[in-house]
Write a structure and sequence with these properties.
Helices cover 60% and strands 12% of the residues. The chain is α+β, with helices and mostly antiparallel strands. It has a single domain (2-86), classed as Multidrug-efflux Transporter Regulator, Chain: A, Domain 2. Strands 1-3-2 form a 3-stranded antiparallel β-sheet. Helix 2 packs across helix 3 (52-61). The longest helix is centred in the first third of the chain and has 26 residues, at 2-27.
Length: 90
């Protein structure tokens, strides 16, 4: 029962979060201060041209800030841009 509830909530949060990203993209929430799009670890690995296990390691070590929604990790586009410019934290 507990696992089922978690899966339902996870799906709901993922859909809500995706909807917020869409609304932000279309209308510019917060009076012009746009929220950063959230990417999956796979999207981040493709963007940075690194293996997904490397990205997972960076998240686990705290070198890449990420948020977990249910079973899916998300990284802000701003964080990916920071890593591109500065590299990962040491």
């Amino acid at each position: 029962m507990k696992g089922r509830v978690i899966r339902i909530l996870s799906g709901f949060l993922r859909a809500l979060f995706d909807r917020l990203n869409y609304c932000d993209m279309m209308s510019g929430l917060r009076g012009g201060d746009k929220m950063s799009k959230m990417l999956t670890l796979r999207e981040v690995s493709e963007s940075l041209d690194l293996h997904i296990n490397t990205i997972r390691g960076y998240v686990k070590q705290g070198k890449l800030r990420a948020v977990k929604f249910g079973r899916v990790w998300r990284v802000s586009e701003k964080e990916v841009m920071r890593v591109r410019r500065q590299g990962v934290k040491k």
